[in-house]
Structures are given as C-alpha cells and as structure tokens.
UniProtKB/TrEMBL annotation:
Name under which the protein is recorded: Ribosomal RNA small subunit methyltransferase J
PANTHER family reported for this sequence: RIBOSOMAL RNA SMALL SUBUNIT METHYLTRANSFERASE J
Gene from which this protein is expressed: rsmJ
InterPro entries documented for this protein: 16SrRNA_methylTrfase_J, SAM-dependent_MTases_sf
Pfam family, any one: SAM_MT
Listed transmembrane segments: none
Major localisation: cytoplasm
Binding sites annotated in the UniProt record for S-adenosyl-L-methionine: 100-101, 116-117, 171
Keyword Ion transport listed: no
Function, as annotated: Specifically methylates the guanosine in position 1516 of 16S rRNA.
Annotated HAMAP family: 16SrRNA_methyltr_J
Length: 254
C-alpha cells in the first residue's frame, strides 16, 4: 500500500503565504527532517514539488517548453490510439497529472480539457500553463488546453450532450514499475503525493457513457484491464499499453 504524506509549502517567495492558503497546507520556513516529506515551493520562478535536498533529486515542475524538446515515450502509440484526424478531435483527459499526454495531444492539434483533482498537481499544471501561454514556442498549443481543477468523473457527468468530447483519455495511477532510474525517481515522488487511484473502474464507466467516438486507457503492458473490461483493441509498446474502447467510427476525412 502506498503512503500519501500531506505536502507542506516551503517559504521561498513572497507568494508562498498565499499559495499555502490557496492549497490549505502548512507553511514552513525550512526543510523537514523527514526525507520523504514532499515540499511545494517556488524555484526559479516556477512552482515545483520536491523532497528535502538530502535526497539529491531535482524538483519536479510542469514544463511544457521542455516537453516540446524532449522525446515523449509512447508518442506514436498514443497518437494512434486517439485515432481520427487529431487536428480536430476534442479530448477530455480525465486524469491529467503533469499534463504530458495532454500536451502531446494538443501539440498535434487536439483541443484538450485537463481534469486534475489533486490541488497541488492542479496548481503545478496551472503554473505550467501560465508559462506556456507566454512562451512563443508553446502559446499556440496552450491555447488548445483548458484546465479543470476537480474530478474527471464529475466533469464528464456535468457535460451537456453537445459538449461531450470525441475522446475520453484515462491514465490512472498504477503501482510503480519501469527501468529508467529517472522515471522511477519522478514517479516515486508523484506517488508519494497522489497515491493510487482506487476509483478508476467507475471513471471508465462514466467515460464510456460520455465519449462520442472512443475511450483510451493507458496501462503498463502487463496490467489487468481497467474494470476488467476487455478493450476491442490494444496497442502495446515496451513500457506502455493503450486500451481502446471504440464507440462510434470517426466520420470519413475527420
Ligand atoms: C498517472 S497520473 C497521469 C499522468 C498524465 N497522463 C501525464 O501525462 O502527465 C494520474 C493523475 O490523475 C489524477 N486523477 C486520478 N483520478 C482522477 C479523477 N477521477 N479526476 C481527476 N483527476 C484524477 C491523479 O490525481 C493523478 O494526478
């Protein structure tokens, strides 16, 4: 079972007090003695999460400019799984996390609503989007991304028929595995903040009711199907699998 520690806000900036209030977290002036305590703080004008320096780990931020330059693992598979012409598809990413998959989809033309229910993660996303909107490289992509701070299931349930998206994308938390040391470190930090998503089976059910064309679920290659529901199709790479639940074909030329 993963242990989720309540994060604290580390005072590094004039805005730290307001941040602690906004997130309803304790404000501290110094690092905790607990090496596993997650701290939220401003660093180089970015909002980041990090462990005490004794861990020698880089703090994690949402950095879409970096994402533009870096290879996105599973990129081709994700684009294939989303299907249709990505130039028009509307996507609800109901488990946005650090927004990497959403950003990839938006950078290929999708309009993406990012739902994130964890306040600290939503704050990291909001900070990343704010910087992306000011960046000459990312502003156009960011204009297709909209953040919804709250439950993906509630957001989907609230949509009118005509606002339902073409695709609902799900990537709920799964126990850490993987070989890359860096991914492991980042994922460990993220896991200690978010824990496991225990309600993702129900999220799949609502996604299947609200998507117009398909639901796509990201899983580790050998993980069981979400809600034990066998997809019509899966595309699998070395580190990731996308389960595809088609509902209605995309119109020709779409
Ligand atoms: C594995 S991460 C997603 C990573 C993301 N695909 C990316 O590219 O960065 C899962 C995230 O979904 C969020 N989440 C899980 N269930 C959710 C729900 N029902 N509504 C909103 N957010 C949810 C968790 O808080 C976590 O931040």
């Amino acid at each position: 079972m993963s242990v989720v520690l309540t994060p604290v806000v580390l005072k590094t900036d004039a805005s730290s007090d307001a941040l602690a209030q906004h997130l309803d977290l304790s404000l501290v002036n110094d690092w905790s003695d607990d090496p596993n305590q997650v701290h939220v703080f401003y660093h180089d004008q970015r909002l980041v999460i990090g462990l005490p320096p004794v861990n020698r780990e880089h703090p994690v931020a949402v950095d879409f400019e970096l994402a533009l330059r870096k290879r996105h693992p599973g990129k081709e598979l994700l684009l294939k799984a989303i299907g249709g012409s990505r130039h028009r598809a509307s996507v609800v990413d109901a488990t946005a996390g650090l927004g990497r998959d959403s950003f990839l989809l938006a950078s290929h033309g999708c309009t993406v609503t990012l739902c994130e229910r964890m306040p600290v993660v939503a704050a990291l996303l909001a900070d990343g989007l704010r910087r992306a909107e000011k960046s000459s490289d990312c502003a156009e992509i960011a204009s297709r991304m909209q953040l919804h701070h709250g439950s993906g299931a509630e957001y989907l349930a609230s949509l009118s028929e005509q606002d339902c998206p073409d695709v609902v994308y799900l990537d709920p938390m799964f126990p850490v595995s993987g070989k890359s040391a860096l991914v492991k470190k980042e994922m460990r930090l993220f896991h200690s903040l978010v824990g496991l998503d225990q309600d993702s089976d129900a999220l799949l059910e609502i996604a299947l009711q609200r998507a117009r064309h398909r639901v796509v679920v990201k899983r580790p290659p050998k993980a069981p199907y979400l809600a034990e529901r066998k997809p019509q199709l899966s595309v699998t790479g070395k580190a990731v699998r996308f389960d595809i639940y088609p509902l209605k074909a995309f119109p020709k030329g779409y």
